[in-house]
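Hey all, quick one. A colleague (J.T.) asked me to put the N-oxalylglycine job into the tracker so the inputs and the structure tokens live in one place instead of scattered across chat threads. No bug as far as I know, just bookkeeping. Sequence used:
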Amino acid sequence: MEGSVDSVQELWANGCDPPSRYIVKGEIGPINISSLPPSSPIPVIDLSRLFQPDGADELAKLRSALESWGLFIAVGHGISSDLLDEVLNMSREFFQQPLEEKQKYKSMSDEKNMVMEGYGNDGVESDDVALDWSDRLQLVVQPEDQRTLSLWPSTPSSFRHTLHEFGTKSANVRDMVLRAMAKSLDLKEDTFVNKFDEKASIYARFNYYPPCTRPDLVLGCGAHSDGSVLTILLLEKDVRGLQVYKDGNWVDVFTTLPSSLLVNLGDGMEIMSNGIFTSAVHRVFTNSAKGRLSVVEFCGLDLEKELEPADGLIDEKRPRIFKTVKTKDYLDRQNYGESKKALYSFKVEA
Ligand code: OGA
Ligand code: NI
């Protein structure tokens, strides 16, 4: 398809089996949707309780979730269900448009922001890593002066306004979680949030995972941990696909709760917490029946700011685990498809 974006949606619409560059080398493991357990094992945290006088239990639950899972389902986050529904609806509408319309927002590499912006499919640097069975739209949402508005869809007409709203509200959720995380570690509440100034970044990624004729051969998103500090995900209720790697197994991550969000830690927070919290290694599988949608917001520091363990988390009993690294240099090193290899390359030698 000379000059056009490779669209997985088109491959599916044309009944194609996955081309070889999408085929994952190695085992995906058995994925049988009909035999999956009905309830989600993922910890649920009520953010509104974390700052209440009787919030100690919820804080302990948060800390434990982040130490062992690196993610949790958030309720009581303060974003209205109307806004969340609107974000999912407009995303669905965007992907349902004809290819020509979506290609108006075709992705381009943005060296300055170190992210691909626009519609398309992420390239991968290495031939050993299979392409993801997904189509994406990626946009810088914050800092506001770095938005590329020409890549913000004008249809559906509410898209720009709604994304702006969602970005602003998500920044509040981010700050709430950052404060609670510091509190749960007995640090001053603003320890982490102070590092997020007006140049802190949020970029949004709209993922559409079309069905696939061979879900046993491809992944919607290969195993990775996010390069963010934390990531906020809006998932469709009760829809499977996302999995987290925990204690040697891939565990299904989904929510049955209305208006919930998923929060997962990126490598940045593993560094800032001096390894007490873990970034979640996760992946997405596909199925042959139904497409899946997710809206993801990656929250990180200003690219010029340094990631480093918080002072209060380093002592004789717990020496510093990670070196100080500029966010930009960290993202340069991050290599998709190679779980946590980048993160471990910044470990202090034992
Ligand atoms: C991602 C990601 C998960 C999902 O975009 O980094 O992990 O459920 N997405 O779409
Ligand atoms: Ni991810």
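Adding what we noticed when we looked at it: Confidence is low (pLDDT under 50) at residues 1-5. Helices lie at 8-13, 56-68, 81-96, 99-102, 159-184, 267-272, 327-333, 341-344.
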